[in-house]
Structure formats: structure tokens, C-alpha cells
Design a protein that fits this description.
Elements (H helix, E strand, L loop, with lengths): L8 E5 L4 H12 L3 E6 L16 E5 L6 H9 L6 E4 L14 H29 L4 E6 L12 H21 L4 E8 L5 H6 L11 H12 L10 E4 L4
Parallel strand pairs: 1-2, 1-4, 2-3, 4-5, 5-6, 6-7
Helix pairs in contact: 1-6, 2-3, 3-4
Length: 234
């Protein structure tokens, strides 16, 4: 099945990162115009898609700041889908986890997802489309317990719960809400952090991006309220 985003506007938070850039590339190939909120802007040398005619980067957007997020979404010409890749990671045993780490994970992962989802719903409604799409990025530890990830897993579990609740709330408007739940993905940063791991078992960012792009596409006619595992062999 070919996905088709021609003449559709899509937000991709975290769009300049490893997974986000793979998502943006697929969307551009399918005809989308992509809007990327970025806290510090984007370095064209590290994110060459910044020069693409259908990529619009908004610098200075703190996704955990309510006013920043509201202003970003209000400035969009219209909106079909919002894909929330931006997030953070931290690991430590519970006895060594300060409250500041828990708060940071909740802000970086759960709060950003909530604010972007809320503002996306408003803009999708105003755009007059026949529905729309929201795709969140959860995580395998939010579904399958993993030791030493209490703060991170709790924040991603909040993303899972928000996804399921919004999917039910928005179904009558044909705004499908889903999430993917990746395991460790094959990125340069993860290879550097775990040099002895078997990289062949990790899902590639392009593979995870393909699942995200389908869920966000008009060709996804019926799938909603799904937390899709994208684990590969890991």
C-alpha cells in the first residue's frame, strides 16, 4: 500500500532527531508538508532536510511550555496529522532516582505529548478535514517492565494512557489516535552507548518510521486506539 500525503500538513515534534528525521523523509516522499517545532533550531549540516522546500522549522519552541505550544499550532496554515516523536530518556535504580529526574521525564515525555495533542486537536478541527491523525511515541518499558527505568517508564505509560483515552474521545470525529512502542532502536547514539550489543536485533529507525507514517496517513482507514509494538527482535 502506498501512503499519500499530497497537500496535507503534518507536525513532527523531534523531527530533527534520528527517528524524527526518518519520519519526515517518508512524509516528504509521500507529498506532505512538514512543520517541525525546535527548541534551538536545526543545524543544516546535521539535518539536511532543513533545506527542503516543504520543511518548515519553527525555532525557539519549548514543547513543555503551554504558551509556546499553543502559539506554534495556531500559526499553522492547516493540519492533518500531528506526530509526537520528541522525548527524553533516563535510567537509574529507584533508590538512586531523584525527584528531579522523575519530573524531567514527566515533563519531557508526558507533558509535551499532552500539550501537543491538545493543540493538534484544536487545529485539526479548525482545518475542516474529514478527520485527522495523532501518533504518539510510547516505549516498550511502558508495556513490559524493565528494571532501572522507573521514571522513564512511568512517563511513557502516561503517553500510553493518554493515547487510549484520546482515541476513544475523538473517534466520532474520525481523528484516529495511536502510538508506537519502540524497543531500543538502531541509532548512532545507542550504538555508542551499548557497543557490545547485537545491533542486528534492534529495529531500524526507518522501519519504525514506516509504521508511524502509515498510522498518520489517510490510508489508515480504521486503526485507532492501538499501541503498536515495534520491537523487531529486541
Amino acid at each position: 500500500m502506498n501512503i499519500d500525503f499530497k497537500d496535507r500538513h503534518v507536525v513532527v515534534t523531534g523531527g530533527t532527531g534520528a527517528l524524527g528525521a526518518a519520519v519526515v523523509q517518508l512524509l516528504l516522499d509521500a507529498g506532505a508538508t512538514c512543520f517541525i517545532p525546535s527548541h534551538g533550531g536545526a543545524d543544516p549540516d546535521r539535518f539536511p532536510l532543513a533545506q527542503h522546500a516543504r520543511v518548515h522549522i519553527a525555532p525557539g519552541v519549548d514543547l513543555s511550555n503551554e504558551a509556546n505550544v499553543a502559539m506554534f499550532y495556531k500559526g499553522l496554515p492547516s493540519l492533518w496529522a500531528s506526530i509526537h516523536v520528541a522525548g527524553g530518556f533516563a535510567a537509574s535504580p529507584i533508590a538512586d532516582t531523584p525527584l528531579s529526574q522523575f519530573d524531567e521525564m514527566m515533563s519531557t515525555n508526558a507533558t509535551t505529548c499532552f500539550l501537543c495533542s491538545r493543540e493538534a486537536v484544536k487545529r485539526i478541527r479548525e482545518s475542516g478535514n474529514d478527520g485527522g491523525r495523532i501518533v504518539n511515541v510510547a516505549s516498550k518499558p511502558a508495556i513490559i517492565p524493565s528494571a532501572g527505568l522507573s521514571a522513564y517508564a512511568a512517563s511513557k505509560a502516561a503517553v500510553v494512557s493518554l493515547t487510549l483515552t484520546l482515541a476513544e474521545e475523538l473517534a466520532a470525529e474520525r481523528i484516529w489516535v495511536n502510538a508506537v512502542a519502540p524497543s531500543i532502536m538502531d541509532t548512532p547514539a545507542n550504538r555508542k552507548a551499548m557497543p557490545k550489543a547485537d545491533f542486528s536485533k534492534w529495529p531500524k529507525v526507518e522501519e519504525v518510521a514506516a509504521t508511524i507514517a502509515f498510522l498518520a496517513s489517510p490510508q489508515n482507514a480504521v486503526t485507532r486506539e492501538a499501541i503498536v509494538p515495534v520491537y523487531g527482535q529486541s
